[in-house]
Amino acid sequence: MPEATPGPVVHDAEYYVLFDQHGDSWAVEDAELDAKLAELETKFGTKPNIVHIMWDDMAFGDAGIPALNKIRGFDTPNSNRMAAEGALFTRYYTEAACTPSRAAVMTGRYAVRSGMYNVAFPIEASGLAGEEVTIAKVLSGAGYATAFYGKWHLGDIEESYPTNHGFDETLFTPYNQVLSLWNQMGEGANAVQGVVKEMLVDDPYAVDKNFGPSDWIMSMEGTKGGDMLEWKSSDLQDYNAIDPECQQRSLEFIRRNAESDTPFYLAYWPLLTAFIPNPRKTTVARGLLAEGYANVDAYLGAVMDQLKELGIAENTVVVAHADNGPMVHDPPPGLGMNETVFRGGKSDYWEGGIRVAAFAWWPGMIEAGSIFGDMFHEVDLYTTFARLAGATEGIPTDRIIDGIDQTALLVNGDTRGRRDYNFVYTGNILAATTKGRYKRVWVADHPGLPGAAFYDLYNDPREVNPALVPFLGTSSSFTTMRKRHELWKQKYPDRPTKRGAPFTGIANAREATKQLADPPVDLDKLPFDPLEYIDFDLPWDGLDAD
Fold it and tell me: Is 1 exposed, middle or buried (0-12, 13-18, 19+ CB in 10 A)?
């Protein structure tokens, strides 16, 4: 594990504005929290265990609120139980898409800072850089057992594998759910076209017979210091086996470490669903989201029950949330993801894209039935988990850490949060800034102030009535916020996307997999290296600025 640079953790500039006003009272509160955590450690003999569960693309309200369950046509009894026995977040923010969100959780940094702002698809030839210090590295350095299971989605280069980022054991997918379609059933149903080439009639006009993907890996498993192996195949049957296998392994991981009195950090990020529906329906809604989340919800119940059975529930904090808003733009048929309370969805800077269903459960430490109105960003998990583990010395101090320690909110309850701001990126573009109840959208601005869009999120939570004149008093403050943010980035620049040959370091690599990193071409017949594209970045063109 890289050694942390001596000195204090570096936060974004806006944090210091808050610290200047509240630092003294926070220090008093922190001393009281330290005493509570010390009592807990004395009782159980270890630092608290940490379980983090994150699934795909769910709007705020789709889980955890029984009244909205009725509207949506599927029940979430264990999410509702988690909220009733623990806490429901009402302002839990994420990044706007899958890969950026996962990078943010792992590093405690907005994804743009690590170059992980693009959503990864096969073949990506990039991934999370080894120089990033993940929360798994931080906790592993403090003596925690660590495991990752599920949808990693943080790249296909060797240094991005979970076992190279602090995890002791893993079964993971380097990409997303699109691979559930890359099989004979998907090709036969025209859910994808041109992927499974052995099923295609030869096109006599296609000169390039190698256009399109030739091979990929759906899932891999490995242990820290051991071999990395491809797990099963890319068939739909094997895709559907990943989540059950991950759930079984994760519960075994919890039991094994509980019995050995080893503190543990478990990250389980389920695939949630295949894009090819299961013909057996279990919910009234029948959509892919509803059917998939039924399995996730059951797992939440299994985790809570097991922690109680093992007698470690009071010494285990469980945080569960979606990675971003629903896929409302160009979804596959029957997905069933829709706006519920807020406008927009996945990839949007609107609240519906980044404000998600989220819960926390920690019996005896989080007051049952808590509803948090404080702002919480997923990057805050990084610093909060490090604080709970007594591992803050492992946080690097040579880069900006966007995460804020929110232990006070979890333990002391509503209104005790330490964040009231968020910088919202779409790709590598700063699209909006939120401060308390106010939000300014930057990408809709025309030159000069006219056209600037401001929103009051209390009175216009769906962001459908932009206003200028009523919010002119906030204009200069937002501009100052952005200037501080941009100036701080000049001192601590965003890092470029890390690129490399895909799928190296796999002990049981198939010949087709090896050819992804070493194409079988005659270099004497080509005036370029066929892999030189890896280090070339296209201009970002994924911004929805409407």
Answer: middle
Q: How far apart are CA 28 and CA 314, in angstroms?
A: 24
Give the type of residue at 3. Answer: E
User: Where do the DSSP E strands lie in 66-210?
Assistant: 87-93, 126-127, 145-151, 169-173
CA atoms within 13 Å, Cβ hemisphere of 538: 6
Q: What is the DSSP string of 271-299?
A: ----SS--SS--SSS-SHHHHHHHHHHHH
Cβ contact 371:90 at 8 Å: yes
Q: Half-sphere exposure (CA, 13 Å, Cβ side) for 535? A: 4
Q: What is the phi/psi pair of residue 243, to 5°?
A: -60, -45
In this prediction, residue 1 carries a pLDDT of: 38
In this prediction, residue 77 carries a pLDDT of: 97
For 67, the enclosing helix (H) or strand (E) is helix 66-72
Predicted confidence at residue 528, as pLDDT, reads 73
- Round to whole Å and give the CA distance between 498 and 516: 17
72-83: b (≥16 Cβ within 10 Å) or e? bebbbebbbbbb
Using one digit for the tens of pLDDT, what is the confidence trace for 77-90? 999 999 999 999 99
| DSSP tag of 356 | B
Closest CA to 417 of 444, 380, 461: 380
Which residue positions in the chain have pLDDT lower than 50?
1-5, 543-546
Asked if residue 245 lies in contact with residue 171, where contact means CB atoms within 8 angstroms, the answer is yes
Mean pLDDT of all residues in the chain? 93
> DSSP strand E in 3-103: where?
49-55, 87-93
State CA 203 to chain mean position distance: 41
Please state, as a whole number, how many other Cβ atoms lie within 10 Å of the Cβ of residue 499.
Answer: 20
Q: What is the DSSP letter of 448?
A: S
Element (H, E) at 498: strand 498-499
Which residue's entry shows tokens 């962001």?
463
